[in-house]
Design a protein that fits this description.
- The chain is of the alpha/beta class and about 350 residues long.
- The chain folds into two domains: about 200 residues, Periplasmic binding protein-like II (D-Maltodextrin-Binding Protein, domain 2, 3-Layer(aba) Sandwich), CATH 3.40.190; about 150 residues, D-Maltodextrin-Binding Protein, domain 2, CATH 3.40.190.
- The protein is built from 13 helices and twelve strands.
- Helix 2 crosses helix 11 and helix 11 packs parallel to helix 13.
- The radius of gyration is 20 Å and the shape is globular.
């Protein structure tokens, strides 16, 4: 039932977004393009909500393309081909260094493009956790050696984070201590349910659409990062890696639905959160960036009601540590976004200002 409701929410939000976009064309101040991920997650929800809110406020008509590869989307924004895109913050960092998916650009070109990017607001994309069907017999982080683990898509930030977390918590390397399985996000639920892997290490939300779909195939258990590992020097350092942040939630609130048991060694769920946001070019006008951000701020309460997971998706959370800003993250807020947040009574740390 939860799975159906999540799909209905995604479809409903997208439909409202399209209708609002069409109806507002005659009076919208700007016609903009946006790119985001597939429906069902927090970064998709933030973008389609912005399109609806911006249209309703007469700020802009945003034509949203979802299901996009965000690696390409932020490069499109940096090159002026797209106005707004969702991203995990690890991607602007990699772009700035000309590494990973941007290695062909080189460091100089990558840094030039990354310097064009600015954030409007933060989003928590998910919190990494270990989970498995009870039928597999997996007992937790200490029981992963020799197992087959689905740890992300074939490339990208999720796979890198999952591999690092498994190594930090369980002391195992992909291809050595365990066999990693990688498939694209569109095949995630099938891979979780068809027996291709004994365990899963992926980012989750509360509740999580992949888990709520998968639990129809059997009861599951989800494990928090153990407290001693969480507090270790190595894990603490990794929590401040670009695009990452510490995430804690009272165990009573870590609701993943019927048929799912959540295990922690105390009353707190702990995990590494993947942080991102919707970003624009530094060349976007002050007035437009401010108006878009204001539309987001003014409708935060509505945004948080649009999906069961939205309460814990980091909307409106600007704390430097929790929002993944500053430190190694080169991304700054757009000056118009800074003005909108500060006028609304929020604090933006100087290190996050352009």
């Amino acid at each position: 039932m939860i799975s159906k409701s999540l799909r209905a929410i995604a479809i409903g939000v997208a439909t409202v977004c399209q209708l609002a976009s069409i109806s507002s064309t005659s009076h919208a101040a700007e016609n903009l393009t946006g790119e985001t991920a597939s429906p069902g997650g927090s970064i998709h929800l933030s973008m389609v909500h912005l399109a609806e809110a911006a249209a309703a406020a007469g700020v802009a008509n945003i034509q949203v393309a979802d299901g996009q590869t965000l690696t390409n989307s932020i490069q499109n924004v940096a090159e002026g081909k797209t106005d707004i895109a969702g991203t995990p913050y690890i991607l602007p960092f990699l772009l700035s260094k000309g590494r990973g998916p941007y290695s062909k650009l080189g460091a100089e070109k990558g840094a030039e493009l990354a310097a064009n990017l600015r954030a409007l607001y933060p989003v928590t994309l998910g919190i990494f956790a270990l989970y498995a069907f009870n039928s597999t017999g997996v007992k937790g982080w200490d029981d992963l050696e020799g197992r087959t683990i689905y740890n992300g898509p074939p490339r990208g930030a999720a796979l890198s984070n999952a591999r690092a977390i498994i190594q930090l918590v369980a002391g195992l390397k992909d291809g050595d201590g365990y066999k990693g399985v990688q498939v694209n996000w569109g095949q995630a639920v099938k891979t979780i349910t068809d027996g291709s892997a004994e365990a899963v290490v992926l980012p989750v939300l509360f509740p999580d659409s992949r888990i709520t779909q998968s639990v129809a195939s059997g009861n599951m258990t989800v494990w928090s990062v153990p407290k001693d590992k969480w507090e270790s020097v190595a894990f603490t350092k990794y929590l401040r890696a670009p695009g990452s942040a510490p995430f804690t939630l009272g165990l009573a609130s870590a609701n993943l639905g019927e048929g799912v048991t959540v295990i922690s060694d105390d009353d707190t769920f702990r995990g590494l959160a993947t942080i991102g946001g919707d970003i624009v070019s530094k060349d976007m006008s002050f007035e437009l960036a401010k108006a878009l951000t204001k539309a987001h701020i003014d409708t935060l309460d509505d945004l948080k009601k649009k999906a069961p997971f939205a309460e814990y998706a980091g909307y409106g959370v600007l704390d430097v540590l929790k929002s993944g800003m500053c430190g190694p993250n080169p991304l700054k807020y757009h000056e118009g976004a800074v003005a909108a947040w500060e006028e609304a009574g929020y604090t933006i740390d100087n290190c996050a200002k352009p």
